[in-house]
Amino acid sequence: MASVFSHAVATLGIGALFYKPEIPKRVWVIGAVCAAIPDLDVLGFQAGVPYGDFWGHRGFTHSLVFAALLASAVVLIAYHHAVPAISHLTLWVYLFLATASHGVLDAMTDGGLGVAFFSPFDNHRYFFPWRPIRVSPIGISHFFTHRGVAVLESELLWIWLPAVLLIVAAVLLHRRSPGPVS
Q1: What is the rounded distance in angstroms from the CA atom of residue 105 to the CA atom of residue 89?
Q2: Residues of the chain by 3-state class (helix, strand, coil), percent to 5
Q3: Long-range CB pairs of 70-73, under 8 A, 24+ apart, other chains included
Q4: Which pTM does this prediction carry?
Q5: Burial of 39 (0-12, 13-18, 19+ CB in 10 A)
Q6: How far is CA 35 from CA 92, 172, 174, in A?
Q7: CA 177 – CA 155 distance, rounded (Å)
Q8: Least CB-packed of 15, 48, 68, 72 within 10 Å?
Q9: Is residue 39's pLDDT more than 50?
Q10: Other beta carbons within 10 Å of 175
Q11: pLDDT computed for residue 79 by the predictor
């Protein structure tokens, strides 16, 4: 898996595509939380859930169906009233992409069993053919080691840099777009 830090950074890059100054900052924070939620499945290790099970790590909670369900729940529960400067559909798309980005990044790592993108319909685990991201250790104590530093170096190059470039591109495109017609 990629680290929780990098999942949040990727979500900021995605958020740049939807950014308007009038949108409340809590929308971006909730997007980052949605990007981290799929890894709550690691709690299953302590409950004896095998890694490769439906509820195991990188199983259902990393699927596209889960991303759609989580985005729907957040929009319906947390944002049932109007949100300034963003429609419910656009908010749903942002939250869906934020959550789905988790599985995409994990499928680009060099470890684990792959990601069950199509669960519950197909529980097969998938990786992308190109896997440049070092897999992050599970557990905070293991993260602050030499291996954790190597993971962060990998993520800086393959997640943080593209996210920053996406943010810069979105800002430049936003500046070039014409304002409202009077």
Answers
A1: 24
A2: 60, 5, 40
A3: 70/34, 70/37, 70/95, 70/99, 71/34, 71/95, 71/96, 71/98, 71/99
A4: 0.91
A5: buried
A6: 13, 25, 25
A7: 31
A8: 48
A9: yes
A10: 7
A11: 86
